């Protein structure tokens, strides 16, 4: 079958997108205090690593990532590409080894590099096998092999340090999540579970044998579950940083709220986002609500270390909440739900929002902060809630925005839930008695604002 006319010149067009995006990125670095894009071998954090990316830079990186992947898929033989995709299953396993045995921490002892014999002795595992694991990761630019069988950290492997909250999230994905994903076909083929929307009929349930939902497990159903729950709570700090969720702190007009306005973080875990609001807007009165274990962890461990002034000034209230059993603290100006609805099937989402609605006043607002799923088909610009990527790139940026689709699969595997489109959020909110106000484009995620209907 002949190629369609629109496919002619795709290679050159994709290369041009890559070139132009790279120029934008280099120009952004050139304006920083260290005006060069750092090498992967550079172990010194760059000032831009901890800053929120401006929209133009974020868009250019997404174009670059999407176009590079689409270009490779376009020019390589299909069987070559698909075979490599099949074999990507080994990368999470190797990352799990590196995280479990704290390889990055050990390599910190010798920044120039450590021989595998010494490294394996300190890690307590077989050196020949560990070397093969690290060689795969080094070939994917995680760690580096500085000479034969001598490995060292690089910019990417530093993210695996046990002191980095992202490493806790890495253990979640490469451990319980990865094990469960292998059972997804079994669940989909099951005559009962395949069509089920219940949070207890998941690939994760089949993997663990646990009959409750993931959050019951995290709340201490077993000692292992409690350990994983605490790990997941810390991992959410790393998730927020990596996804630049903090864009909501600067992009949403919190400063327009009156002094003393109350913001309730519903299901906020240990309060990663609330911490950022507390530091940026000291005039806000903050309420953090989640299940008891996370609230205890937040009140006794996290906030005394990260933001003791908010506790001393009585700007933060900690209160346990089961958002299925009843409403959050009543009468707040803003009810903020970050990555809450994506954890639950539609029926449960409506129940959560109805309980929030019960707590609201006519002036209250609900902010739902999540991924807003984009379809992969090109639409007329006027019909799309999002700016579409330039052709011939996939309109949803392809690999450049793959995280939202990966997380959608994570939700299916672990909770029988999903990431949603804007239309799905509006439909759920209307069923709960809420009216749509606005979609805020804030970095990688979106914020959907609602009021009482």
Poorly predicted runs: 1-5
- Give the CATH class of the domain at 243-372 and 420-452: Alpha Beta
Query: According to CATH, what is the topology of the domain at 243-372 and 420-452?
Result: Rossmann fold
The span between the termini is: 53 Å
Helix content: 40-55%
Going across the biggest sheet, name each strand in turn.
Answer: 6-5-4-7-8-10-9
CATH architecture name of the domain at 243-372 and 420-452: 3-Layer(aba) Sandwich
The topology string of helices and strands comes to HHHHHEHHEEHHHHHHEHEHHEEHEHHEE
| Number of separate strands | 10
**Proportion of residues in extended strands:** 5-15%
Mean pLDDT: 94
Characterize the biggest β-sheet.
7 strands, mixed
From the spread of the alpha carbons, the general shape counts as globular
CA radius of gyration is 23 Å
How would you describe the overall organization of this protein?
This protein is of the alpha/beta class and 453 residues long. Among the domains are: 85-160, Arc Repressor Mutant, subunit A (Orthogonal Bundle); 165-235, no CATH class; 243-372 and 420-452, 3-Layer(aba) Sandwich (Rossmann fold). It has helices at 10-30, 55-75, 78-86, 90-100, 103-107, 116-123, 127-139, 165-181, 184-189, 203-208, 214-221, 223-242, 247-251, 272-280, 292-306, 308-312, 346-359, 403-415, 422-431, and strands at residues 114-115, 144-147, 150-152, 262-266, 285-290, 316-320, 334-338, 365-370, 434-442, 445-452. The strands form two sheets. A seven-stranded mixed sheet has the order 6-5-4-7-8-10-9, sandwiched between helices. Strands 1-3-2 form a three-stranded antiparallel sheet. Helix 4 packs across helix 8 (165-181) and helix 8 crosses helix 12 (223-242). It starts with 9 loop residues before the first helix and ends with a strand.
